[in-house]
Amino acid sequence: MRIALIASPFICVPPTRYGGTELFIAHLAEGLERRGIEVVVYCNGESSVNAEKRSCYPHSEWPLSNETSGMLKELDHLSWSIEEAATTCDLIHVNSAPAITYSRYLGTPFVCTLHHPRETALTRMYERYPEIHYAAISEHQASVHPTLAVTTIHHGIDMTKYQLQLEKEDYLCFLGRIAPIKGVHIAIDVAKRAEIPLKIAGEIQPIFRDYFDTMVKPHIDGRFIEYVGEADLKMKNQLLGASRGLLFPIQWNEPFGLVMLEAMACGTPVFALPGGSVPEIVQPGVSGAISTTAEGMANAARNTTYSPRAVRSWVEQRFSVDIMVQRYAALYERILCNSLASGVQLDHTGEVAA
Predict the structure, then answer these.
(1) Per-residue confidence band for 354, with pLDDT thresholds at 50, 70 and 90
(2) How many domains does the chain have?
(3) I need a labelling partner for 329 at 20 to 30 A (CA). Which of 199, 222, 291, 311 fits?
């Protein structure tokens, strides 16, 4: 079995800073390789994922300099990647809506992981391609796509890359894009109500610069509220590991939220608002707390008595990369077996095999 995993050309796999989908693709690719499954990752030339890599664009480009040029670059990358993958791979796994449109030219099976919340236009597009095998990343995300045949496979993380830290310092943290839907301004409110310092890490995208300047920056004093910039893996371990809690005051139905797993892998509980996948990931009293208000989050953060070992054990038993990889491998095998059982065997070009 040889699988093509197609990323965008914009962010390297794995990402050095921002890039949840790219982190997922890296974990999946390397996990499949460990299981003896051949993988080709179509990504940009700066990627370092430990698998066979193919690229037509040598460099990363994030944030995008221009929306139109970015769209054209994405389409060019997709058409090149899918055309080549169809000649050498048994199954093509894509991670964006535009990619599924190329499936109509090929006989190669497609899997598409849905990384976004429900949008009517996207759902209508997916409904036009019922032969695609869709994977949702949470039960909540699957529930809002009732017209699609969806397999739910939670994200998993490589636990070896995250260090359990037993001793915590007296601060809370926020890690994610600096955007209104991520609720950074609410995290600041929670920290002030709890009277616990807050460290903020994340990317400030140009589109949300006004939000940062008006809703976040005025509160930053470098002592109680601190912005520490974007976080690479080393910084994530330091920031999350030493914190008494990650604030996740989400303002939308987050499809998953990998940062919650990253915090828990460091033995740090998550204090969240109940959006999207949060109830599937945060086990109240074990790996964190779910509240409906900023005051409730502040109370939970003030009264934290969580065992770092128990928090890490929660994510290790339910959201490890090995569990995720096992489920994707089973999905691939089922799809390919069903193709053979149909009595029509296709070669890599999509033609009926002789």
Answers:
(1) very low
(2) 2
(3) 311
Could you give the strand order of the β-sheet that contains 198-201, starting from the edge strand earlier in sequence?
Answer: 225-227, 198-201, 172-175, 245-248, 270-272, 288-290
Per-residue confidence band for 243, with pLDDT thresholds at 50, 70 and 90 = very high
Determine how many CB atoms are found less than 10 A away from the CB of residue 98: 13
Is omega for the bond preceding 14 within 30 degrees of 0, making it cis? Answer: yes
Q: Does residue 220 sit within a domain?
A: yes
- Do 45 and 73 reside in the same domain of the chain? yes
Q: How far apart are CA 354 and CA 345, in angstroms?
A: 9
Do 136 and 184 lie in a common domain?
A: no
pLDDT tens column, 197-211: 999 999 998 899 999
Task: Please report whether residue 349 resides in a domain.
Answer: no
Domain that holds residue 290: 160-316
Q: State the CATH number of the domain containing residue 171.
A: 3.40.50.2000
Same domain, 246 and 303: yes
Structure-model confidence comparison of residues 17 and 297, the more confident one = 297
Residue in 317, 9, 329 with CA at minimum distance from that of residue 157: 317
Average pLDDT over residues 248-258: 94
Count CB neighbours of 323 within 10 A.
Answer: 16
Residue 142 and residue 60 in one domain: yes
Q: How far is the CA of 167 from the CAs of 159, 170, 198, 201, 331, in angstroms? A: 19, 10, 17, 21, 40
Give yes or no: residues 88 and 213 share one domain.
no
CA atoms of 155 and 143, how far apart (whole Å): 17
Question: Which token pair is 57?
Answer: 């664009």
Q: Tell me the two tokens of residue 270.
A: 């998550």
**Across-strand partners of 92?**
4, 110
Q: What does DSSP say about strands 38-42 and 133-136: parallel, antiparallel, or unpaired?
A: unpaired
Q: How many residues does the chain have?
A: 354
Element (H, E) at 270: strand 270-272
pTM assigned to the model: 0.89
pLDDT band at 18 (very low <50, low <70, confident <90, very high): confident
Report, as an integer, the average pLDDT of 129-158.
Answer: 95
